[in-house]
Specification:
Length: 255
């Protein structure tokens, strides 16, 4: 599992949850909507229930091309790992970086307005026959609990054949009630909360190829302090080594 994917799972799975009446009726309504999408577009719909740690998957004809044999299906996880495994590795990273941005941005949006926003990006699936297919991917947080935690999220995968040379759809967050594409500045700045200013300095120097001793000399701090900052950076970015921390730091605009 990619470390960036693991971070996203931790953010969503360890939210403070509270249960309440009427949830089953809401869940059934959202399940019908997801099923209707698949009936119309022949794509794949995944309704993730973070409260109960399960997902509901519907797949049309396109689902069979990536090996999804049973539809609908219920899995004991709020994350569709079976589908993630079909994505090209670079697309999987981009998808999770985008959803990390989306998750943080949604924390600044009133709960009753969250369903107006969704992510939008083009990814690529490796089909069962080895071919590569472009896919339009969208994520929307449909339901939140009274305490603000995300309860139900809907992920949609629609095949989108593109002509040679056609420009791919860039990762973005869209308000589909107004048609507005949210400027990166409105949510990218939230990434800065991941690391302290000193940790950003350390990561920037590490990205330039400096050793811990060189970082210590340039910042006039002890080498042991640099080691501690490095461990804090790895923990904050949920990665296991400095090279991956630099990659994620660049992707998130931290350095």
């Amino acid at each position: 599992m990619h470390k960036q994917e693991e971070k996203l799972k931790q953010l969503l799975s360890y939210q403070p949850f509270d249960d309440g009446p009427g949830r089953q009726e809401v869940l059934e309504k959202r399940k019908r909507q997801a099923e209707a999408f698949v009936e119309i577009e022949n794509g794949i719909a995944v309704l993730s229930d973070y409260l109960h740690a399960r997902s509901y998957i519907w797949a049309g004809s396109f689902g069979r091309l990536i090996g999804i044999g049973h539809s609908p299906a219920t899995i004991s996880s709020a994350f569709e790992d079976e589908i993630f495994s079909c994505l090209l590795p670079e697309d999987l990273v981009e998808r999770h970086v985008l959803e990390l941005h989306y998750y943080r941005f949604m924390q600044s949006v009133p709960t009753d307005a969250r369903q107006d926003y969704h992510t939008l990006c083009q990814i690529h699936f490796r089909l069962a026959n080895g071919a590569i297919a472009p896919v339009l991917h969208r994520t929307c947080y449909l339901e939140s609990l009274p305490n603000g935690s995300i309860w139900l999220a809907l992920c949609l995968y629609t095949p989108c054949g593109s002509a040679e040379g056609q420009r791919a759809i860039p990762p973005q967050i869209v308000n589909h009630a107004t048609g507005e594409t949210i400027p990166y500045d409105r949510y990218g700045q939230l990434d800065r909360q991941l690391l302290s200013p000193r940790e950003v300095e350390v990561l920037t120097l590490l990205a330039r190829g400096c050793s811990s001793k060189q970082v210590a000399r340039q910042l006039c701090i002890a080498t042991n302090t640099v080691y501690r900052h490095r461990q804090n950076i790895l923990a904050a970015l949920q990665v296991s080594n400095t090279a991956m921390a630099v990659q994620i730091g660049i992707r998130l605009g931290l350095i």
